[in-house]
Amino acid sequence: MDFKENLLTYLDKNFVDELLLSLNKERTNCLILNTNKMSDEKFIKLFPKVKKHEIIKHAYFYDKEDYDFGKSLYFDNGLFYIMDSASMMVPYLIPLNDGDYVLDMCAAPGGKSIFLSLKNNSINLISNDINYQRSCILSSNIEKMGFSNVIVSSTTISLLERYYKNTFEKIVLDAPCSGSAMFRKSEEMKEDWTYEKVLKCQKIQKELIEQASVMLKPGGILSYSTCSFSYEENEDVVIDFLNKHKDFKPLYIKENEYFVRGKNLPQSIHLFPNRYEGEGQFICLLKKDGVDRKNKIDNTKEFKHKEKIDNNIYLYNNDLNLKPLKILRKGLLKAIIKGNIEIPSFHYAHYLSTTNSIALNDEEVKKYIHGDEITKKLDLKNDYYVVSYNGINLGYVHKVNDKLKNLYPKGLRH
To answer: What is the pLDDT of residue 186?
Structure first.
C-alpha cells in the first residue's frame, strides 16, 4: 500500500488530492515567544513582518527570507523557540493547574515541554526522552529558556512505569511515528515512508499509550498525538486502547474551522496542512475516571531543594522520588563549583531578571558572543555579573578591575 492509498482508506479522494498538493508547497515557519523575557509589543516592534497566530497567543509565523531566527542571538538566548504551529496545538489544548505533576514522555527536542512551561511555570514537569543525545539537545533548550521547574531525564519508559504508577495529573505522549507530517521538512522522511513502517510504529504506540495510562492519576488527562496522517497510528491506536480501558473517556476538543474531526473518534482532531497553517498533527485528549486528588500547592518562591551533583549546584521544587531517573538537568543549575569557587551558570543567568545586569552596547555584544574579553569601567566590585542586550540576559562575565572576562558558552560563540 502506498501513501495515497493509505490516506484513501479513511479520507475522500478530493480531500486527499488537496492534502497531497499542499505537501508540495513550502513548509511554514513559526515560533513561540518567551514572554518572561520580552513582551509581544516589543517583539513585534523589533520584527514587524511577523504574523500573529490566529489561535495561539504569543505564537508568530515568519518568512525565513525576512528573519533567519534560527541563527539569531535571540534564539540562542531563549527569547523564543522555533516550533511547528501544528505541534504547538498539543500543549495549547492541555489544561494545566498550578502544582500539576506533568510528564512529557517523548520530549526531545523540547518544544512541547517549553510551551507547557511558558503556559504555566508553576507545574512540576519531567521532560523525558529515551534517546540520550536528543535529551542533551532538550536539556540545552530548557537551559536557554531559563526554566526552573523542569527535570530533564533520559530514562526508559518501562522504568518510569515501574516507579510512577498513578503519579501524574497530565501526561503528554507525542508518540514516535512514521512522520508523514514531516514530508515538507525532510525529503528523507518522505522517501523512508512505507506501510510496514506505519504498522511497526503502531505497535510501539500501543505499548506507549498503555504505559502512559498506568502512570496517570485518577482524574488525570493523557494527551496522545502524532505527526502522522495514517489512521492506523491515530484513531486506530486510541480506539483500540479505549476498548480495553473502560476507565478512560475521550474529551471533546472544541470546534474550530481549521480542525478535521477524527474518523470514528469525533472527539479527536487532525490538523492537515491543506486546512491549517502548519505541517500536521493528530491530537486526542483522554481523561481517566476518578477524582483528581490535587497535590498540595506551595506558592512560595523559595526553592525547597538544593542539591550538589558532580560539582553542580541545582535548585528545584519537585517532590517526587527522582532516584529512578537518569537525570541530565535537575531543575535550575545555579552554579558550577571549581575549587572553592561557585561560578554562576548560563542557566541561572537566564532564570534571573535583567534588573541588576550590565547592559552591553552593539559593539560590546558582538565581542561577547564571539567570546572576547570586554574592557569597561564600572563602579562595581570584582565579582560575577550578568550581562544583557536589549533587555535579554546573555550570560555571565567575571569582572576583574576594568576587564569583563567572558563566560559565554563556547558552543554558542560565533
So the answer is: 87
At 11, phi and psi to the nearest 5?
Answer: -120, 150
CA neighbor of 335 nearest in space, from 308, 302, 316: 308
**Of 55, 172, 61, whose CA–CA distance to 110 is shortest?**
172
Helix axes 132-145, 111-119, angle to 10 degrees: 30
**Candidate list 106, 201, 227, 284, residue with the active-site label:** 227
pTM value is: 0.96
**DSSP tag of 254:** P
CB 78 within 8 A of CB 350: yes
pLDDT tens digits along 72-86: 999 999 999 999 999
Handedness of CA 116, 105, 252, 287 (dihedral sign): negative
Q: Which residues pair with residue 306 across a beta bridge? A: 315
CB 141 within 8 A of CB 81: yes
- The CA–CA distances, whole Å, from 294 to 100, 117, 161, 218, 289 equal 8, 19, 20, 11, 15
- Report strand pairing: 124-128 vs 101-104: parallel
- 227 catalytically annotated: yes
- The CA distance from 7 to 12, in Å, is 8
Say if residue 75 is exposed, middle or buried (CB neighbours under 10 Å; 0-12, 13-18, 19+): middle
pLDDT, residue 10, reads 96
Q: Please name which of 127, 111, 81, 75 lies closest in space to residue 227, comparing C-alpha atoms.
A: 111
Q: Distance from CA of residue 323 to its chain's centroid? A: 23
CA distances from 80 to 28, 124, 157, 228, 244 (A): 16, 21, 29, 26, 41
Is the separation of the CB atoms in 230 and 178 below 8 Å?
A: yes
Contacts for 194 with CB less than 8 Å, ≥ 6 apart: none
Amino acid at position 152, single letter: V
Average pLDDT of adjacent 10-residue blocks, the chain of 414 residues: 96 97 95 97 98 97 96 96 98 96 97 98 96 97 97 98 97 97 90 96 98 98 98 98 98 96 97 97 97 62 89 95 96 95 97 94 97 95 97 97 96 93
User: And the C-alpha cell for 36?
Assistant: 518572561
**Contact 285/220 with Cβ under 8 angstroms?**
no
Phi/psi for 294 (5° steps) reads -65, 145
Q: Are strands 168-174 and 101-104 parallel, antiparallel or unpaired?
A: parallel
Task: Say what the pLDDT of residue 187 is.
Answer: 86
| pLDDT on residue 398 | 97
Q: How far, CA to CA in Å, does 133 sit from each of 109, 110, 152, 325?
A: 10, 13, 12, 16
